[in-house]
Write a structure and sequence with these properties.
Layout: H1 2-5, H2 17-27, H3 53-70, H4 77-126, H5 133-157, H6 168-188, H7 196-220, H8 225-228, E1 235-241, H9 243-255, E2 261-268, H10 274-278, E3 283-286, H11 290-296, E4 301-305, H12 311-321, E5 327-331, E6 344-347, E7 350-355, H13 362-393, E8 398-404, E9 410-416, H14 424-436, E10 440-442, E11 465-467, H15 469-472, H16 480-493, H17 496-509
Parallel strand pairs: 1-2, 1-4, 2-3, 4-5, 10-11
Antiparallel strand pairs: 5-7, 6-7, 8-9
Length: 513
Amino acid sequence: VLDQIGHFDERFFMYCEDIDLCHRINLGGHKIYYVPTSQIIHYKGESTKKNNVDYVITFNKALYQFFDKYYADKTWSLFRWIIVLGIVARGVFIYIRNFLHEHFPLVLDTLILNSAILLSFMVRLEFKDGFTWYGFFHRDGIINLISMVIFWIIAYYLEVYPHHRFSIQGIIKANLLTFTLLASLTFFLKQFAFSRMVVLMAAIVSPLLMSLWRMVLKRYYRGDKSAWGKDLYSKPTIIVGAGKGGLALYQKIREMKDMSYELLGVVTINDEEADFAEAHIPVLGRLENLDKLVAIHNVRQVIFSSAMLSYQQILKTMSGMGMTGLEYKIAPSNLEVMIGKSSIERLNDYPLLDIEYAIGKPFNRFTKRMLDILLALGGFVLLAPVLGPLTLWRRRRRRRIDILGRMQSVITIAQMDALNPRRPVNLWLLLGEVLRGKLSLVGFPILPKDDAGHHPHNDYWYRPGITGLVQINRSKILTPDDLEKYHIFYLKNQSLMLDLEIILKSVTKLDIS
């Protein structure tokens, strides 16, 4: 049958290839039988991330390709456009639905914030000149925009989103800081001076309503599979560990009557699976495949058992995965050592400590990228009148050089003749690569791809940079372990001020990559 009708059509990569094959079998006059004894491995649609716009585009493109292949020639042009619009509308609807499902606390809080400010304006102006919609949008609507931007920045900085989106304490703190900054504007900007009463009323209403819906949801919500597809509060959780320590931790969490943990199984550090098998605990895989297991099982929380893992190994694993939406906790084997933040969640004998690496925070990544753009743009424009014509004059000597990127990836940058960032013209070209997002001002050393084998620790977890912590401390690095310690220190402590300090030291030492 396959020799007659052909095999899978590669145009339907990922989606609709099976439908297309079955349709051709039916058109060929053959029959299709389902064999119930066959077994397959199915990844439940995890070949693409369903919340990603790529999924929506790829899936709906496959639907249109199927229609175009079999029915477009038989359909009037008007009906064809209606079908295309239907497919596009369906894709937009799916994307909006997935976005709201993933970010509905942020959307709801933003609506509450704007509604509280609008309501405060209506009450305040009714006692003054009377409220009009024209006056609000023409004169006062800018306050909504300013307060919304301030609220988003503070909420993400405090990690209310996405990690602690149902935290009442976190949302109250975000509101207090937002309206404190907003109130300060009324003292420095005269056009906002009249709105102090508005700020005061909104500062009372907004945190009250945001806390109220969280309390109601926590009180009455028990997980509606049909409406939301998963429990809002139960975080799919896996434990990384081995031996009796990992087994005891799993059993302790499973015995808890806590809806915030939905244990999926264990990821082992080695091949010791016998203890878990005897206790009927599912073993999902091994530590080296943790990123794939997290994607397949939609994991939102990872708990490390530190009995057989060092803090450096844990931090390296976290940063190597590059998943900022994940929550990480550690169950220390020794209570004398405090690791991570001050947030402690006690499970009787097991205090779970929140752990994080600074460079993984969305706010830190945003500020780091903004610093790169501002400084690189300033330097690029400042040097352009001198080095721009020189680069054009020597354009035939310009080379594309492959260097190591994050996690052993390879990226291509432009250099004159060879990789030599100390040359002014090459440094200017590197500033252009920073603007394009390939490099950072502060990162790990720029290494040619051919030198990868000479560096035992080349699986770096952040962008290569013109300068960096390793570069300015090169004389202190004597062993590969020293090198890794500097990388881990930067991952754990990266901040805007640390990057500025590294850049200033590099300028004073003239010590670039």
